[in-house]
């Protein structure tokens, strides 16, 4: 049986996760990466999706905290980052085991296909800082970023969870990624969502 699904994201004008979800939603509704030319055909539908969410928190951290505190009854489906659940599980393994054993609803990651991939670039403004970029690309550091914090690394190369608490919950590879729309299309979409 199919029915309505309520999804809540952050405010796309205040938070990157909401911004990315707005771009992904627009592109999925348009059938391709949305452009300034194709945006007018679907911007009303995207606005409806966001309007029906009600209040949208200004940060993914606040939304995730609300999701954890309220449970499935309050926030059945939220848009966030994969690493938020990973860090929450790793922060307190005993708590996670209690949730797995007793909670009526258990947090699960759903991966849209295609999805959007969030990058965290480091740009050096001084030549001597370039060594930090090299250090962060070191295989051991990439493994640490994935295993302890859920950051996949360049091109999603790191991704096989070794922690037993996470192995069955995560995709090993993110294989279908849709690029974000170009800046003019996103700015126009954000203006429409603010109206």
Q: Can you give a write-up of this model?
A:
The protein has 195 residues and is mainly α. It has a domain at 16-120 and 175-194. Helices cover 48% and strands 0% of the residues. The protein has 8 helices and no strands. Helix 1 crosses helix 2 (39-51) and helix 2 (39-51) packs across helix 8 (183-194). The two termini are 35 Å apart. The relative contact order is 0.18.
Write the layout of secondary structure elements.
Blueprint: H1 16-30, H2 39-51, H3 60-74, H4 82-91, H5 93-102, H6 130-136, H7 139-149, H8 183-194
Helix pairs in contact: 1-2, 2-8
Structural class: mainly alpha
How many alpha or pi helices? 8
Q: Which parts are unreliable, with pLDDT below 50 for 5 consecutive residues or more?
A: none
Q: Helical percent range?
A: 40-55%
> Please, what is the average pLDDT?
88
Estimate what percentage of residues fall within beta strands: under 5%
Summarize the biggest pleated sheet.
none
Order of helices and strands: HHHHHHHH
Rg, please? Answer: 18 Å
Q: Ends: how far apart? A: 35 Å
Taken from the alpha-carbon principal axes, the silhouette is: globular
Let me know the number of strands: 0
């Amino acid at each position: 049986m199919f029915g309505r699904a309520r999804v809540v994201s952050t405010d796309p004008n205040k938070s990157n996760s909401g911004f990315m979800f707005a771009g992904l939603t627009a592109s999925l509704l348009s059938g391709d990466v949305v452009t300034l030319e194709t945006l007018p055909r679907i911007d009303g539908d995207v606005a409806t999706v966001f309007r029906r969410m009600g209040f949208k928190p200004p940060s993914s951290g606040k939304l995730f905290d609300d999701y954890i505190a309220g449970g499935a009854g309050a926030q059945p489906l939220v848009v966030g980052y994969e690493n938020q659940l990973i860090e929450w599980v790793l922060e307190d393994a005993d708590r996670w085991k209690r949730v797995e054993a007793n909670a009526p609803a258990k947090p699960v990651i759903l991966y849209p296909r295609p999805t959007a991939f969030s990058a965290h670039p480091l740009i050096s403004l001084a030549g001597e800082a370039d060594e930090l970029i090299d250090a962060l690309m070191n295989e051991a550091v990439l493994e640490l970023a994935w295993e302890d914090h859920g950051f996949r690394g360049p091109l999603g190369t790191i991704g096989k969870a070794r922690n037993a608490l996470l192995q069955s919950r995560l995709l090993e590879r993110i294989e279908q990624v849709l690029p974000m729309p170009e800046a003019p299309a996103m700015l126009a979409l954000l203006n429409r969502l603010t109206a």
